[in-house]
Amino acid sequence: LEEILEDRKQKGLALPRFLYTIPTFQNPTGTTMTGERRQHVLELANKYNFLIVEDDAYGELSFNKSLPTLKA
């Protein structure tokens, strides 16, 4: 993601205004974004000035400890 954003910035192309993500049990793969990855996405949002729309509908369904939302 960072490489794409930086490439677009260097080429003078428009950057995204928002990122839509399902960080927990993403469909269709069922993957969950790690805490480190979530933090990195937040850093990119700050650096490249875009909003994050987090769809965390499945965040409470984990058998393990739930990860904090991106906002947290």
From TrEMBL:
Cofactor needs: pyridoxal 5'-phosphate
PANTHER family in alphabetical order: AMINOTRANSFERASE, KYNURENINE_ALPHA-AMINOADIPATE AMINOTRANSFERASE, MITOCHONDRIAL
Protein name (database record): Aminotransferase
Positions in coiled-coil regions: none
GO process terms (BP): alpha-amino acid metabolic process
Record key words, sorted: Aminotransferase, Pyridoxal phosphate, Transferase
A molecular function GO annotation: pyridoxal phosphate binding
Domain Aminotransferase class I/classII large: 23-66
Annotated signal sequence range: none
Organism encoding this protein: Shouchella clausii
SUPFAM superfamilies: PLP-dependent transferases
